[in-house]
């Protein structure tokens, strides 16, 4: 049995972490035919777009992809390829499990939380009107006429939150909790201020919660959540969040469990699943063979489970966990402060994981 899977190496540190994940996945013995698809700034010159149709076609055909991060210029330039992939393939749920691994440098150990983030709507959808442009002026005029005056030189972002979008992500979160032996879903929002968007999200999530009497639910404002996650992360189980809050809280949780190098994830819809680390392309670390490949490898573990290779997923996770716990062949961010030796590179850590996979299987 072999699997056809799309791999998007991405840019920045993307090619390094996806290569590491790839050799670890292959070491488990699962046969994968990789369909390599380049995307991002580097392909614009040749193909006129950072996201050529062939990339989406490949994912549509294979149904499953492993993706590295892709750079989005900050404050100018083309819109995020990552957001486009999620929207075009309707990958409406972003699932990011965050768990403490023994040996990781962090003051807080009791973290075992799953983020379920709405992935297609809200402010993160990037529907924007530039300051000074004609349609922005029209919008500002409309706002003025309806007693919602804003400064005439404003840029404006819209925050659409739909009934359909809220229903399906809430359903996903509660079903995920039930299917994965989780006990509680916290519905995260700022509905005291944004009553028609976050309020709608909360209202619908509460209705869906009613259909899951076996799963406890609570509602919590996102600012309060941020504080409580730092003080008492053990109080939380599954977090259901609108898009932008999910983006920010995911990084906070990564910070609590050893940094972005440890945070895996998947963007998933009814038909397709794109597995990718939470972290970005970290351009400043590109090509240095020094970043932590764990987030990409753990995304690979999630991918193996998704395709039904549960035993191999468990072996890969165990191998990674053992290497981190031993602490001898780990990257700079995982190395304990009293270690004198040089930290391992991305490749060396991946090789140590492959060796451990071999030991576990023989
Ligand atoms: P980033 O995640 O790239 O980096 C944030 C910090 O984490 C940096 O200090 C970086 O060095 C560190 N870091 C990230 N990955 C690491 C790893 N594997 N091991 C060790 N340290 C790691 O976030 P950023 O700097 O805000 O964004 C850089 C670019 O990435 C931007 O263009 C952004 O749009 C893009 N981005 C892409 C995705 C994606 O493709 N899904 C996600 C987030 C950001």
Which features does this protein show?
362 residues; alpha/beta; Isopropylmalate Dehydrogenase; Rossmann fold; 3 domains; globular
Short description:
With 362 residues, the chain is an alpha/beta fold. It has 12 helices and 12 strands.
Strand portion, in percent? Answer: 15-25%
CATH topology of the largest domain: Isopropylmalate Dehydrogenase
- Stretches where pLDDT falls below 50 for ≥5 residues? none
Integer count of domains: 3
Bound molecules: nicotinamide-adenine-dinucleotide
State the fourth-level CATH superfamily of the largest domain.
Answer: Isopropylmalate Dehydrogenase
Number of strands: 12
Structural class: alpha/beta
Largest sheet: 10 strands, mixed
Q: Explain this structure to me?
A:
- The chain is α/β, with parallel strands linked by helices and 362 residues long.
- It folds into three domains: 1-98 and 260-362, Isopropylmalate Dehydrogenase (3-Layer(aba) Sandwich); 107-121 and 161-256, Rossmann fold; 126-158, no CATH class.
- It is built from twelve helices and twelve strands.
- Helix 11 packs across helix 12.
- The longest helix has 17 residues, at 163-179.
- The two termini are 21 Å apart.
- The site of nicotinamide-adenine-dinucleotide has 19 residues, from loops.
Question: Topology, pairings included?
Answer:
Blueprint: E1 2-8, H1 14-27, E2 31-36, H2 41-47, H3 53-62, E3 64-67, H4 81-88, E4 93-99, E5 112-118, E6 127-129, H5 134-145, E7 156-158, H6 163-179, E8 184-189, H7 198-209, E9 216-221, H8 222-231, E10 238-241, H9 243-256, E11 266-268, E12 273-275, H10 294-306, H11 310-326, H12 346-361
Parallel strand pairs: 1-2, 1-3, 3-12, 5-10, 8-9, 8-10
Antiparallel strand pairs: 4-5, 4-11, 6-7, 11-12
Helix pairs in contact: 1-10, 1-12, 6-7, 8-9, 10-11, 11-12
Nicotinamide-adenine-dinucleotide (NAD) binds next to loops.
